[in-house]
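Task card 7
Instruction: Convert sequence to structure tokens.
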Amino acid sequence: MKGFKITFIIILIIAIIGALTNPDEAQHKEALKASMRGGLSKALQNNGIKANHSFFNAITDDLYDNYIWTSLLEKEVSRKNYWVFSTTRLTYLNKDYTAGIGIFGKVYIFPQVEQQVAERINQFIKEGGGLQNILNQ
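Output:
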């Protein structure tokens, strides 16, 4: 019985700490934004666009922050609160996806998110073809 009480108290303390340090929605959005930007960077680098290229910097800074994220994605990201932890939710094409988890003050975005972003951008570049030609001039 004494072991049960100690286990219960430890679980209760962990739950209270989790609830007090549960990340807010802004932290979830910022973590997902960073992960998706990483996918964009990987895709561009995979297509021969170097990080020090001025067009690369314009895309990742101005275009991503001011258009892609703010206009298209930010409003599709939400946080589902489970009190002790929370999940990062992304609505894409009218479907909800869990993109990460927030616990003890940190948000962890699943690595598949960055990978999917990179794959979709790679596919877009291959299908469009014009972007690579513009960047090489």
